[in-house]
């Protein structure tokens, strides 16, 4: 096999992200070498199939990925820039501009460093929870600087695509504002909700349902890791949190004003719906197929059987009714390209059905 | 079959909760009659197997469950108290004290009304999303008043247990404070997170991952329903939100103070962990079984195979390492009663393992 630029990858840090990357790159045909300050982590990751353990003396990587906790990333990047004078270096840190500034101080010549940030992880840590599918269909942000060589940027972008991620390119500062908005603030809202439970008597926790569990899931993440992320992005996070604090004060004022309150709840609903669709993809383009449900006892069960047998992936459905005609209507949301097919299929089975845009 | 007190149940409102209750009660052997202001909803629910459609003239229920939106509950309770002079009446409203006060104004003689609140639902609405398992292992709060007859309270408690719920009894006012804490405030935190997305450029939404989706899931719920819930519990919710607002102000101040910030994140983590365990149950009592992982390439994979073949349900696991001896340790959390069995089983397969309390 011809040796390509990105054949040999050294991953520094065999935690959840580093080990998962090792698994995914190995599967994609890369030769992966793993190193971790805790040698047993690299051993475990290698044992799971994420690569070979580094023996340091013979490492000669084309690409180095620094996948350690944020605080030690700049020092390691500076070290490998010097140690491997031909390698392209990237990292997986969650905040890009402060890392770049720190590297700038430690190793002023850093044009072979191309920052990046795979938007993937979990509330777990360590190589045991690694998965070769961690990056599949997720966004991997690459944050190049003007001094980076296009070929080096391309190497990192290819690596991200080779593990199934969707590459988004943006400047480091913009990236940091975006993650404050869609990751760091939601994390802190989860923390605020969960930490407020310290004020709640144990007996009242019996009433906790699925809702609060969803809202507080990410609050279970490692406090030390998140302290590093948040302190390094403090000014962007503060800006967003001050907006949230204003919203919260407004909301407290509106609690007994039904109209204003419902309007605010509607803004929340709209925000939640704006995230519907798959990770890192545009929202799915759906059409509604509406079916008339005659006034017969088993009509609906029969309709569901028919839809099921037609084998379409139903994204959502809603029941509406006509008070005067005493008829029910089932609106089924499906991807635009299959809507007509579903409609035809249902009509063939004897139903009245039509399709159109979602209300 | 002998006619028991709770044989015939009339459910008013065939939405998600009413229809699910009809499915569950029918399965438990009750004779269920359904009514909804939208007749097609009752038809659909009946079609799914949740009971018979009411014909109003011949209804003669032993129990009436009012499962409508909160705003119309008091009026319907007053109406059925008069219409069915021998029936026990309950409702499923999310806030109890204001409903009780409203009923008191409409029908001063209401000793046959026993308030209750099943802690179950979803972000969906309508009979199509109904499930006969909606109440299984969930908490169903019953909020009796001094004037209620013990036999009437028992009827409602039995009905809740018959659909698989775990009954918790508490006064209406206490219930309302508890739901403000574990349901209404988390809902509003989800709303604040989701509504803040209106400030976020579309391009930045590409970076949204699973975390924000979890936090904002319940914000997708029906704004009109939640407006009714929140306005009727406004004073308890305000009290809690003012505490959250203080926490938020504190948090904004600590963003660049690593120690204090990490401490606050730790409080959030502790709060999230306090909810671990199944709904309406005490947290699972777990022990840790720790296994030494020798320095061999496939040791960990082999260990996982052995644990898998032993057939235990692993709640959690963590990898630690000994820097000096270059050994890894796998700590496996399992329920206390099976820990010793797991340890023995693993030792039998040649591993060094011991068990003890979770750190």
TrEMBL record, chains A, B:
<protein>
    <recommendedName>
        <fullName>Prephenate dehydrogenase</fullName>
        <ecNumber>1.3.1.12</ecNumber>
    </recommendedName>
</protein>
<keyword id="KW-0560">Oxidoreductase</keyword>
<dbReference type="InterPro" id="IPR046825">
    <property type="entry name" value="PDH_C"/>
</dbReference>
<dbReference type="Pfam" id="PF02153">
    <property type="entry name" value="PDH_N"/>
</dbReference>
<dbReference type="Pfam" id="PF20463">
    <property type="entry name" value="PDH_C"/>
</dbReference>
<dbReference type="InterPro" id="IPR045865">
    <property type="entry name" value="ACT-like_dom_sf"/>
</dbReference>
<dbReference type="GO" id="GO:0070403">
    <property type="term" value="F:NAD+ binding"/>
</dbReference>
<dbReference type="InterPro" id="IPR050812">
    <property type="entry name" value="Preph/Arog_dehydrog"/>
</dbReference>
<dbReference type="InterPro" id="IPR036291">
    <property type="entry name" value="NAD(P)-bd_dom_sf"/>
</dbReference>
<comment type="pathway">
    <text>Amino-acid biosynthesis; L-tyrosine biosynthesis; (4-hydroxyphenyl)pyruvate from prephenate (NAD(+) route): step 1/1.</text>
</comment>
<keyword id="KW-0827">Tyrosine biosynthesis</keyword>
<keyword id="KW-0057">Aromatic amino acid biosynthesis</keyword>
<dbReference type="InterPro" id="IPR002912">
    <property type="entry name" value="ACT_dom"/>
</dbReference>
<feature type="domain" description="Prephenate/arogenate dehydrogenase">
    <location>
        <begin position="7"/>
        <end position="286"/>
    </location>
</feature>
<dbReference type="InterPro" id="IPR008927">
    <property type="entry name" value="6-PGluconate_DH-like_C_sf"/>
</dbReference>
<dbReference type="GO" id="GO:0004665">
    <property type="term" value="F:prephenate dehydrogenase (NADP+) activity"/>
</dbReference>
<dbReference type="InterPro" id="IPR003099">
    <property type="entry name" value="Prephen_DH"/>
</dbReference>
<dbReference type="InterPro" id="IPR046826">
    <property type="entry name" value="PDH_N"/>
</dbReference>
<dbReference type="GO" id="GO:0008977">
    <property type="term" value="F:prephenate dehydrogenase (NAD+) activity"/>
</dbReference>
<feature type="domain" description="ACT">
    <location>
        <begin position="288"/>
        <end position="359"/>
    </location>
</feature>
<keyword id="KW-0028">Amino-acid biosynthesis</keyword>
<keyword id="KW-0520">NAD</keyword>
<dbReference type="GO" id="GO:0006571">
    <property type="term" value="P:tyrosine biosynthetic process"/>
</dbReference>
<comment type="similarity">
    <text>Belongs to the prephenate/arogenate dehydrogenase family.</text>
</comment>
């Amino acid at each position: 096999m011809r040796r390509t630029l990105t054949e040999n990858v050294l991953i520094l840090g065999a935690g959840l992200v580093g080990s998962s990357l090792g698994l995914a790159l190995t599967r994609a045909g890369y030769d992966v070498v793993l190193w971790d300050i805790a040698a047993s982590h690299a051993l475990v990751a290698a044992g799971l199939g994420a690569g070979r353990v580094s023996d340091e003396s013979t490492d000669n990587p084309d690409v180095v990925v620094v996948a350690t906790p944020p605080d030690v990333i700049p020092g390691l990047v500076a070290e490998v820039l010097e140690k491997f004078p031909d390698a392209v270096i990237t990292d997986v840190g969650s905040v890009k501009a402060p890392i770049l500034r720190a590297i700038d101080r430690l190793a002023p010549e850093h044009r072979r460093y191309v920052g990046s940030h795979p938007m993937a992880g979990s509330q777990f840590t360590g190589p045991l929870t690694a998965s070769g599918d961690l990056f599949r269909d997720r966004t991997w942000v690459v944050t190049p600087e003007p001094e980076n060589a296009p070929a080096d940027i391309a190497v990192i972008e290819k690596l991200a695509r080779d593990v199934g991620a969707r590459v988004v390119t943006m400047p480091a500062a913009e990236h940091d504002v975006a993650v404050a908005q869609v990751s760091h603030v939601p994390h802190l809202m989860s923390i605020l909700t969960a930490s407020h439970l310290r004020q709640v008597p144990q007996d009242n926790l019996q009433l906790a349902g699925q809702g609060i569990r969803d809202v507080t899931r990410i609050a279970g993440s490692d406090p030390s890791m998140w302290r590093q992320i948040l302190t390094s992005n403090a000014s962007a996070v503060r800006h967003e949190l001050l907006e949230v604090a204003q919203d919260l004060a407004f909301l407290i004022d509106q609690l007994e004003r039904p109209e204003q309150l419902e309007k605010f709840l509607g803004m929340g609903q709209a925000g939640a719906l704006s995230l519907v669709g798959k990770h890192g993809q545009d929202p799915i383009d759906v059409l509604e197929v509406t079916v008339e449900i005659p006034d017969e006892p088993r009509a609906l069960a029969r309709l569901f059987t028919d839809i099921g047998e037609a084998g379409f992936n139903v994204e959502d459905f809603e029941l509406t009714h006509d008070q005067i005609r005493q008829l029910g209507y089932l609106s089924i949301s499906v991807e635009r390209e299959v809507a007509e097919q579903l409609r035809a299929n249902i009509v063939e089975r004897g139903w009245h059905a039509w399709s159109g845009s979602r209300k």
